[in-house]
Amino acid sequence: MQDVFKQLSDFFYCSIIGMVVGLIYDTFFFKKILKRRTRDLIFFISSTLSTVIIILGLYHINYYTIRWYTFLAICSGFWFYKSSISFLYIRILKKVNKILSFNKR
């Protein structure tokens, strides 16, 4: 029974990692109109940061033990974030960007 609770907690924490990866994706790509070089650089930075978050998360959760539910949890966390919280976070980013660009004038 202890193993089932350990797997459920691992699933929960890996789904949180998936949500954080979605948050990183939205943070770096909320502005779609960028120059090609800037877009490539931002893609590289966000991919690197997402990979580091996943590797560190897997290390702290279960010492790099990757099971089938690990990938399922990360994908479901990303899907949950994109379908529920993403639109709110993007609206907040747009308002912050509007405030910061207003202060530059």
Automatic annotation (TrEMBL):
InterPro entries reported for this sequence: YabQ
Membrane-spanning ranges: 12-29, 41-62, 68-90
A Pfam family per the record: Spore_YabQ
Keyword Transmembrane helix: yes
Swiss-Prot/TrEMBL keywords: Membrane, Transmembrane, Transmembrane helix
Organism domain of life: Bacteria
Protein name per the record: Spore cortex biosynthesis protein YabQ
Lineage: Bacteria, Bacillati, Bacillota, Bacillota incertae sedis, Caldicellulosiruptorales
